[in-house]
Design a protein that fits this description.
139 residues; alpha/beta; seven-stranded mixed beta sheet; 7 strands
Length: 139
């Protein structure tokens, strides 16, 4: 029998970067400098107060580094659109992208009983990273 944290550590998957820069698309990985590809990931987002939101979003991805990159402005726009009619009180609230779901769980999301079940099934990020874009004139 493993340590109490072994269940959580075995569910860690992917590195994550929330790109705050409007003028940097990170078409090349900021870790290894290889081209990133576009891939959809079912993101698990916690929005204050106590709201779990699932968003299947196109993100930049480096398979070599296992790094997911998503633009902050795109994410916030999608969240605002999703909640503007049914939960306008949480639009603009603090949020945290806490992990991903397997695609088969995403497809069956209507069958998930509650937020606790989503948390139980999700993969937390190995680490959340920060990068600065390389200015074009230094290349």
């Amino acid at each position: 029998m493993g340590a109490p944290d072994s269940k959580i550590s075995s569910r860690k998957k992917h590195y994550f970067f929330l790109n705050p820069y409007e003028d940097a698309a990170f078409t090349k990985c900021p870790k290894c400098d290889r081209k990133t590809m576009v891939r959809k990931f079912p993101l698990v987002i916690h929005i204050e107060p106590r709201q779990i939101f699932l968003l299947n979003k196109k993100c930049r991805y480096c398979a070599k580094c296992d790094l997911i990159i998503t633009r902050k402005s795109e994410l916030e726009s999608l969240m605002a659109t999703a909640f503007e009619n049914n939960r306008p009180d949480i639009v603009g609230n603090d949020y945290l992208i806490i992990g991903t779901l397997e695609k088969h769980h995403w497809r069956q999301r209507e069958n998930l009983a509650n937020d606790s079940e989503i948390i139980e099934l999700m993969h937390v990020f190995k680490n959340v990273l920060k990068f600065k874009p390389v200015p074009v004139w230094t290349m």
